Amino acid sequence: LAYEWLLQQSAQPYPVPMIIGACQAIGRPAFEALGGYDGGMTRWGSEDLEICLRLWLMGYQVLVHPGVLIHHLFRDSFPYTVDSAGIIHNRLRMALLHLSPERLARVIDHYKKDPVFTRSLLLLLESDVFRRRREMLQCRTYDDDWYLSRFECAV
Predict the structure, then answer these.
(1) Of 50, 144, 62, which Cα lies nearest the Cα of 93?
(2) Tens of pLDDT along 61-88?
(3) What's the CA gap between 152 and 14, in Å, rounded?
(4) Rounded to whole angstroms, how far apart are CA atoms 15 and 18?
(5) Average pLDDT of the segment spanning 97-117
(6) 40 and 93 Cβ atoms separated by less than 8 Å
(7) Taking Cα atoms as reference points, which of 113, 42, 49 lies closest to residue 83?
(8) How many beta carbons lie within 10 A of that of residue 37, not counting itself?
(9) What is the distance in angstroms between the CA of the first residue and the CA of the last residue of the chain?
(10) Cα–Cα distance measured from residue 105 to residue 88, given in angstroms and rounded to the nearest whole number
(11) 42: phi then psi, degrees, rounded to nearest 5
């Protein structure tokens, strides 16, 4: 549930598992069909990962276009507060929305030793995540098995 920078595969556009938010361009019809970014995510962290995963599961593609040059301002620190409990909440939310129970258990197992895990989990349990999961499962084209085999991920 994190980025891994991949080497360029082609001079033509090609599929990738995920693209960071600073490099995303989503057509308005697709963005609206998806319902936009997940409003249940906290301020920062993984909203871009979640929408990429949702795009794939809903039958869209996520492509890199090697001919596009993106300029991005990298900073030494954030100009706003980044809460680690919020980041873990977002990762747990993404897993709960889109992954099988077995994979979700692995994600929980990964984060459960973090000091803010309990706070993150409480944020998740107080949200709409279970209703949203039912919605996601009903309207997706593919499941997480397909996605992970598509990109040969070992999760």
Answers:
(1) 50
(2) 999 999 888 887 788 887 777 788 888 9
(3) 16
(4) 9
(5) 95
(6) yes
(7) 42
(8) 15
(9) 9
(10) 14
(11) -80, -175
Task: Output the CA–CA distances (angstroms, integers) from residue 103 to 38, 53, 99, 129, in the order listed.
Answer: 20, 14, 6, 16
Residue among 111, 109, 101 at smallest CA distance from 46: 111
User: For residues 38 and 138, what is the distance between their CA atoms, to the nearest angstrom?
Assistant: 16
For the record, the structure tokens of 26 come out as 């989503």
122 pLDDT band, cuts 50/70/90, is very high
Q: Which residues contact 78 (CB under 8 A, 6 or more apart)?
A: 44
Backbone dihedral angles phi then psi of residue 14, each to the nearest 5 degrees:
-145, 155
Average model confidence (pLDDT) across the chain = 89
- Tell the burial category of 138 from Cβ atoms under 10 Å away from its Cβ (0-12, 13-18, 19+): exposed
Q: How many CB atoms lie within 10 A of CB 53?
A: 23
